[in-house]
Structures are given as C-alpha cells and as structure tokens.
Design a protein that fits this description.
Strand 3 and strand 4 form a beta hairpin. 39% of the residues lie in helices and 24% in strands. The mean pLDDT is 94. The longest helix is centred in the middle third of the chain and has 14 residues. It is globular and about 30 Å long. It is an alpha+beta fold and 105 residues long. The chain has one domain: Glutaredoxin (3-Layer(aba) Sandwich).
Amino acid sequence: MTKLTLIKFSSEDCGTCHRMSHYDSKVSEELGCDFISVMMQDPELYRKYRKILLAKYPSKEGMGWPTYLLVSNLEQDFNIVGEIKGGMTKGDFRSKLSEILTINS
C-alpha cells in the first residue's frame, strides 16, 4: 500500500490548532503516516499544498480549525482519502485517524 500523508492546515492564531500540535504529528507517525503542517500564514508552504486544500474546499467554506487531509500519491495525482476537522483530544484524534486508515487499507 502507498504510504499516506496527513496534511494539517492551521493558523498561527488558532489556540485549538496549537494545542493539537502537541500530539498530532506523533500520532500520525505512530500510525504509519507522513505528516506535514501547513500554516496558512506561511505563503511558500501554503502555495505548495494549496491545490490539495482547494480540491476539498474550493472556497475554504466548511473547513475546521485545524483541518487535516489524508492524502495518497502526494507528489503525483494526489487523492484525498479522508479528513479530520476541528479540535479534539489525543484519543479521539487517534481513533478518527485509525478509522480512516482501516477503511483505506
């Protein structure tokens, strides 16, 4: 199976995004995913992953803070295989990501 990448879209001024940064990358890597954190205020990094975000949220309407998109084939014709939106505990985050990974395995 292709290794999946979890991309976190967040904002510097989002307290929930900051709280989740204490465990989101670690949980992602423990579950076998690569992890990329994209701050909306980082123009270069945002520009690189913008097309993935806009494929799911063309007008950015309905996004959560943070929004995580689980992507396969990141460098080729990417495919969004799941998403997690909004703040949650470490346990809930692990459960949601595990569920998406199970569905896609």
